[in-house]
Structure formats: structure tokens, C-alpha cells
Amino acid sequence: MAKKKEDQGTFEYSYRRLEDILEKLENNSEENSLEDVMNYYQEGLKLLKICRQKLSEAELKIEKINAEELK
Amino acid sequence: MVKEKTMTEPITVSELTQELKALVDSEFKFVYLIAEISGFKRHSPSGHCYFTLKDETSQINATLWSFRFNYLNFKPQDGDKVLIKGKVTLYEPRGTYQLDVTDMQKTGLGELQAAFEKLKDKLAEEGLFDAERKRDLPEFPERVGIVTSETGAVIEDFKNVTRKRFPIAKIFLFPAQVQGAGSIESVCRAIRQANKPEYNLDVLVVARGGGSLEDLWTFNEEKVAREVFNSRVPLVSAVGHEVDFTICDFVADLRAPTPSAAAEIIFRDKNELLERINQIDYYIKIYVKDTVESLKDSLENIKKSYFFNKPVDMMNEYKMRTDEIQKDLEKLIKEKLLRVKESLLHREKLLKSISPEQTLKRGFTYVIKDGKIISRKVKVGKDEKMIVRFFDGDVEVSS
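Output (C-alpha cells, whole complex):
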């Protein structure tokens, strides 16, 4: 699981980061500078797009392992 | 119940049949029967089953409706010894009777059942079922292996559910023979293969559709159980129907009641995720808007605050002070000037009172020689010019 979290190409990375950003905005509203908020916002918009795209455009891939490999 | 028919009056075939039917229906509502199956046929497409139940000397036709067939925990075959619950019915158009089977169990499973319990106890004692070693499944598995038959409903169901729920995933099918001779080795090999690092799997599913206890037996074998135990990849066991429990289920990190249920457990639903993403979208925008607005408000407040308005106040104050100082200064200067003037006048009077003018007016004069006043007689020589000053003018004289 840890290996996945760091892999920025996965859905999991983008989705978790998105939840993370929301939490940061929700919980540290006092400490966030305007610059922080705007940075989170920009990143959030990017991640929203990535997550939506992945979910709606993905096509299930299936790989059958050749029986000869099963030795 | 049985009517004493004298047969003096003839009745129709239908009437006889109806009377027989009423008799059978009431007398043989439910029977339990021990028998052997022969001539088993499943009718297509209805799915109803027709077969004969027999013992050494007698036989009876039997029917098993399709919906009941689906609830059996085994697939009936010719020669199977079975315990049946059923109802005797009479089929009027043909005048035949048969057994309507409502439930059917295979008998003679005592040995397998005992082996199952023995292995279960042994592996439990060794700790293969321990709850502490069960691993959590990753929340978003993108590489999922499945060990199952490459033909049949299981892989299709699994693919369909996955496609609907989380199409981001990639499924790796490790084909295995799931019953019969060689199936134990085949399943073990597939599990070992799926654990190779090159596949980098997040989850591995071991699946098989429903079947009889013998059909599922591969998954009650010690070798398979140990292979499941050794899996480095978190493993989900989905063998048989909901009611079937196998040793494999107990060893696995998680048991799914059916192969489709496995896909439902493993993958979060795409639509729920999209909904959550919309929610996050909404909240992020709200928070950003709130932040910007509250910053605007506080800017406005700062502008209005005493601190920011102080310079203007101070300026005004200074202006007033300077005006006052100027006035004070002017007043001071005036007073000083007046005082100087007065003192000058006084000194003039004083000077006048002691000046020689007054003395001269009383008739005195004084003599000036070479610009100097002559105060002694010794300083005057012969034929020297001098000036005698009266109060109203000078007269030139010579000695």
C-alpha cells in the first residue's frame, strides 16, 4: 500500500491527495495563508480533473497468463 | 377416505383419475426417500430436471424444477445415492405418478466431512487461521490477479462486476484447473505464479463457482491451504456459494461469499467515488471562496481601524499645534518689541537729563581744539584756532 501512495500515476495517489487537500482547507483555516489556499485550490482543480478522467474513461484491461508460464 | 365403489355404475377415466389424484395428494403430502439416481437429464432451456429414482427392485420417476436445482449443494449424477424430500403427484393427462423433489442431499459424505474437520483442527492449531495475520486489502487495487478456470461463469462475472465498479483496474487471469485430478497442483502453481514480483499484484483472488462438496474439495486440500497461507499478496478466497465454507476460506485474508461478491468487496464503486469527488469539488470551492471573502473583510476592517486613520489625525493635530505656536511666537515677539521700545525711551530721557545741552542752555560753553574738548589751560598755545560751542551753535575763535 505504501508503495502505491508514492506512485503519482495511480488513481489512489490523486484521490488521497484530494482528500488531503480538503482536510487541510477544512482544519487549518486559521493557519492557511492566502497563498497556501490558492496553491491548494490550483492543485485540487488539477486532481479533480485527473480523478474524473480516470474513472470515466478507463477501460478494463485483462491479461491472461499463458498456461506455459505456469510452471 | 377411500370410497367403497361398487363399480356398478360406470365412471369416466377422468373421474377415476381425479379420485386417484385426490387420494395421492392427501396421503403422500411429503415423503423422505432413500434412492439412487439414474437417467438424470436436465431439460434445456427450461432447466427442469427429469430422472428416475430406484433401488434394487423398484423405481419411480422424479422431477426437479429449475429453481430448486439452483439451490442444491451438488450436481446430481447417475449413480448418486441421495436422500430426498418430495411429494408424490399424479399427472392426469398420462395417468402416471411421480415424485416432485423439493430437496435432495447426497449421502455417503461421512468420510469427506471427517477429513475436512480433521484438517481444519490441525491448521487452526498451527495458527493458519489466526485473525492477527489477516491483512487489510488496499483501498484502490489497480493490479488484481485471479486464479480460476479460464472458461465458465466465474471469470466473466468477475470481469463484469469489475468493469462496472472500478474499470481502472487491470485483471491478471491465472488459469487453473479447479476440480478433478491435477487440480491441486494446478491451483498451487497458479497461486505461486501470481506471487511473482513481476506481476506486482495488489490483491489475488482464488475463485470457483458453486458445486458439490466433492467439486469444491480441491480447496479443502492441505497443499492448497498452505499455498494460500504463503501468498505474499493479500488473498481473497471466493469458492462456491454463500453456504459453502472451505479450508481455503479460513486461511485467506478475506472470504467472499461468491466470486462476484469478491469483486464487489475488492473494488470501490466508481459512481460512489464520482459522487464523493463532486462533493470534494464543491467543498474546496466553498472554502476558497470563504477564505478570499474573509480576507477581503479583514482588509476592509483594517482600513477602517484607528491605526490606519491615525496619521491623518496626527497631521491635523500638528497643524493645529503649529498654528498655536505661531500665535504664541507672534505674541512673544510683540511683547519683547514693546519692552525694548519702552526701555529705549527711558534711556533717552535719562541720557537727555545728563547731557551737556542742558548746561549749555544755562549759559555755559566749551572749547574744542583739533576735534577735542579742552579741559585744561596748559593745552592752549599761541595763535591756535579753536571752536567755542554754545547750546545753539559754534563760534570760531583764535587765541
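Confidence is low (pLDDT under 50) at residues 1-5 of chain A.
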